[in-house]
Each structure stands twice: as C-alpha cells, then as structure tokens.
Amino acid sequence: MARELHLRGATLDLDRPRIMGIVNVTPDSFSDGGRHADAEGAAVHARALVEAGADILDVGGESTRPGAQEVPVAEELDRVVPVVEEVAKLGVPVSVDTRKAAVMREAVAAGAHLINDVSALEHDPDALTTVAELEVAVCLMHMQGTPETMQDDPRYDDVVGEVREYLVRRVEDCKRAGVRPDNILVDPGIGFGKTVDHNLALMHSLSTFADLGHPLLVGTSRKSLAGKLFNRAVHQRQYFDAALVGWSVSHGADIVRVHDVGAMYDVVCMTEILMQGRS
After folding, report:
1. Is 223 one of the annotated active-site residues of the chain?
2. Residue 203 has pLDDT above 70, yes or no
C-alpha cells in the first residue's frame, strides 16, 4: 500500500519519488537570489517548474544560506504572501520555507499546504503550536546553529546518530503538541551546520532516516558539497546534483528539493526504473 503525505487541503501520494521545485523570492539566495523576487515573475517561474515536472512548489522569502541575516517578519510577509496566492492557483501543493509563526499563518491563509522549517520549529517559540493549530504538514530539518553561524565550526561526535536522534526528538515534540503523525516529514539538513565529511556521512546513511516512519525529504541542490569537493561554481553543479538526486532516491528519499526540475525529473524517472528492474 502506497504511503501518503497529508497536507492541509490536499494529499500527496508517495507511491513514487516526488520533486519539490524551489521558488526563491529573496534578493540574496546563494543560487538564484533576485531572479524571481516579484509575485508575477515568481508565478511565471513556478508555472515553468510545474510544467517541467514539479509535484510541490517551495516558496521562500528568507535566505538561509551560510552567513545570511534574519529578515524582519513584515518584510518576509511582503515577499511571500503575494507569491503564495499566485502559485496556489497552479493546482499543486505549495510549501513555504519559513521559521516564523506569523509567516506560517499568513502563508497558509494564502493557500499554502506545507511548512518547511530549517529550524524544525525551534526558532520561533510559537511555531510548534501554530503548526498544530493550523493542521498543516511540516518538514522538520536538522541544522546545527543558525544560518548566521552554522558553518563557522560545525562539530559532531557521531553526525548520523546525532542528527537521527534530533529528528526523532522533534517528531515526538510535534506529536505531543498535536501535529498529526501523517503530516510530518523529516530532512537531515545537508549543508546546514555540516562539513563536507559530515554531509557525505549523512548521504551514505540516508536509509537510516528513511526508516524513521515519516517521509524523507533531501535537499542537495546546488549546495557547496560539489563546490568544495570539485571546485565548481554554483552554475556548474547540475551534474553533481544529478548524482546526488539519483543516490537520494535510490536510498529512500520520498521527496527531493531541487532548482533544475526538468533535468532532475529525468534523473528521478530513470532511477526509479532502475530500482524497479524494468527495461
């Protein structure tokens, strides 16, 4: 029986790997900052992602790249809400990448189905109760530190065990707060407070996170892993992203979060065929 992810007002079958397309509406994101910063431009971009194969759209109004500064609530709302209203018309589930309860509330009112929080609902003291009250799906991601500090000197005794333990604890916190178990995804947070070796260890152990009993989301798109290993600029990382996406899907990822939806759609489809043994 295929698993399902229950979203607010929608259901996403996880009978096959799903693609989350990234819609950044920030002026300073590491990959595409400023390219889709207005509602009209973001909606055009989002439509192209859906046509290329995106199953979910992830709208973000605050960059969480290493060293990024926090954006005031009012500014984030001004960036995100008009875009969510437009993107929600496209007929696919909409996720909002935010750490702030006020943005969560307004985004859901505008049509969002999922909250994607890089702090696993720990940044804002009202976030956990807000998600429970809204009955919205949530992705809990692991991050050591904050975007401002996370890459200063990340250290772990056992990165896989510590990240897994953290996600288990946050899942239980959500359940105790009233979040439905079938509304919860987990994400090990590749690139968020991790060195290259930490990221590789997590990628090698994705099945550990796929076995937690909740859908697994993996986001590796255009991140510095390939840049640091092979000295590639952001715009030169697509082939490395393809390898990472194929690996993620073959090791249990239910959703992959990507910029290059069309290319990664092909990677996901081919990987799925290979996994099923079809010719």
Report:
1. yes
2. yes
